[in-house]
């Protein structure tokens, strides 16, 4: 142990002798601690919202303001314009502030300008987002409202569906999914917040009309080589995504927005009487499904020559005209109102209102022959009530004033003619043989003249 101790002392002595050699080097001056460089706060005029709108940070946390919390409403392409509202606002108070700012911007913008229209659209989206963040007790727990969609939580676990957003299978046993009660849009619960297209039913309610040009194609260049719905890049070569054309709109879509669904195109029906299904996008498919029963087609104006080539349409038009002539009998008949005979056409209410408007479903059923058969049965039922079953309706018939022979006539009989002025009913042959004047019109004219004729003044007076 002694040698080790001696060795340790020797090493310590050597270390002591070397220390003065280090003192020969010039000593560096001490460096003072540097203070953190202050970050200049932006002026209040450049902030998109007042400073008090920022959430308070917990003590000890560094102050950091994320630019993503600012919403640029896109009211103009001037990037130096002041943005209005909050983009990723997470609470009700911030959304209400953004709505108020958007209202003020709408009032300041020029009337009927494009910027004002864009601001109104942003205001609608902000209100919808505010509705989503409200207390869930205000709405049903299984209902989600998003972009005018009203999603209902499905309870079926065995039905296999496909998500309209991500284009993948919905496994009902292990996944939660929703269906829009308006347009029947189906998606996973995780895909709800990714939906960017509003409900198609809103368009049907406000703008119920068809595109009546056959496949109005404008070309991929007019779409900037992007999907017409989701704006994803597409091309005819399939790189990066295949471009699929919708035969209804004429536009091109990606494979996520166009599933090669088949639908009858209204423009091809009214112009060519062509009922062959064509490939359409998902949005067009939902729109056509909601519009199929709406009577918005006035065939006499769109294609009046169609009645010259389609005999079924002529028969349908004659039956509809007869039903309109029967309607006054039912409105004034207690038995008919009690039996609710007019409800026989409750699925086609426009048949008891006019004879000009048609729906696509009417044309489909006319082409298949179902509408002609069902409408003929209804016509027979109505005529039986008026001519045989009801004495009050029989008493409202007509007798031909030209020949004064034959049975009681009604305006919907096939062998009769109706005067366009007084609605009197005659035998068709009698009416055309004596077409100079209508005896009822002549009698009514004489009666009016006698009523309005001034009395002769008294000579003695």
From TrEMBL:
Residues 1-20, 25-63 are annotated as: Disordered. Residues 1-10 have a biased composition (Basic residues). GO terms for molecular function: zinc ion binding. This is Differentially expressed in FDCP 8 homolog. InterPro entries: C1-like_sf, DEF8, DEF8_C1, PKC_DAG/PE, RH_dom. Residues 27-41, 48-61 have a biased composition (Pro residues). Gene3D superfamilies: 3.30.60.20. Residues 148-199 form the Phorbol-ester/DAG-type domain. PANTHER family: DIFFERENTIALLY EXPRESSED IN FDCP 8 HOMOLOG, PLECKSTRIN HOMOLOGY DOMAIN CONTAINING PROTEIN. Keywords: Metal-binding, Repeat, Zinc, Zinc-finger. The gene is DEF8.
């Amino acid at each position: 142990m002694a040698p080790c101790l001696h060795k340790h002392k020797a090493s310590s002595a050597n270390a002591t002798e070397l220390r003065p050699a280090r003192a020969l080097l010039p000593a560096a001056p001490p460096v003072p601690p540097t203070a953190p460089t202050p970050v200049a706060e932006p002026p209040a005029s450049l902030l998109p919202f007042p400073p008090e709108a920022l959430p308070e940070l917990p003590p000890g946390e560094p102050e950091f303001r994320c630019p993503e919390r600012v919403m640029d409403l896109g009211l103009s392409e001037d990037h130096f314009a002041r943005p209005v509202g909050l983009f990723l606002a997470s609470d009700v108070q911030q959304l209400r502030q953004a709505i108020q700012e958007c209202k003020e911007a709408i009032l300041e913008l020029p009337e009927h300008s494009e910027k004002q229209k864009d601001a109104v659209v942003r205001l609608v989206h902000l209100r919808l987002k505010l509705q989503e963040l409200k207390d869930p007790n205000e709405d049903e727990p299984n209902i989600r409202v998003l972009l005018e969609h009203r999603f209902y939580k499905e309870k079926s676990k065995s039905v296999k569906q496909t998500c309209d957003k991500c284009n993948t299978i919905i496994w009902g046993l292990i996944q939660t999914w929703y269906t829009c009660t308006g347009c029947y849009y189906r998606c996973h619960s995780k895909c709800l917040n990714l939906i960017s297209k509003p409900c198609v039913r809103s368009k049907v309610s406000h703008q119920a009309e068809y595109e009546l040009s056959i496949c109005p194609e404008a070309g991929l260049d007019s779409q900037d080589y992007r999907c017409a719905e989701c704006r994803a890049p597409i091309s005819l070569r399939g790189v990066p995504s295949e471009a699929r054309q919708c035969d209804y709109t004429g536009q091109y879509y990606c494979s996520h927005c166009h599933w090669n669904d088949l639908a009858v195109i209204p423009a091809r029906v009214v112009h060519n009487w062509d009922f062959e299904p064509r490939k359409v996008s998902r949005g067009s498919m939902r729109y056509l499904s909601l519009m199929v029963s709406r009577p918005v087609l006035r065939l006499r104006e769109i294609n009046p020559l169609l009645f010259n080539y389609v005999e079924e349409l002529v028969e349908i038009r004659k039956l509809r005209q007869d039903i309109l002539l029967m309607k006054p009998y039912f409105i004034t008949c207690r038995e008919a109102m009690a039996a609710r005979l007019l409800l026989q056409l409750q699925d086609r209410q426009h048949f008891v209102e006019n004879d000009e408007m048609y729906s696509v479903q009417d044309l489909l059923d006319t082409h298949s022959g179902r509408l002609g058969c069902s409408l003929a049965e209804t016509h027979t039922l109505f005529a039986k009530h008026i001519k045989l079953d009801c004495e009050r309706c029989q008493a409202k018939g007509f007798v031909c004033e030209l020949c004064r022979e034959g049975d009681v006539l009604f305006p919907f009989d096939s062998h009769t003619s109706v005067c366009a002025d007084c609605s009197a009913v005659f035998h068709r042959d009698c009416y055309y043989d004596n077409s100079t004047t209508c005896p009822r019109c002549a009698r009514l004219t004489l009666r009016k003249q006698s009523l309005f004729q001034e009395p002769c003044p008294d000579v003695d007076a």
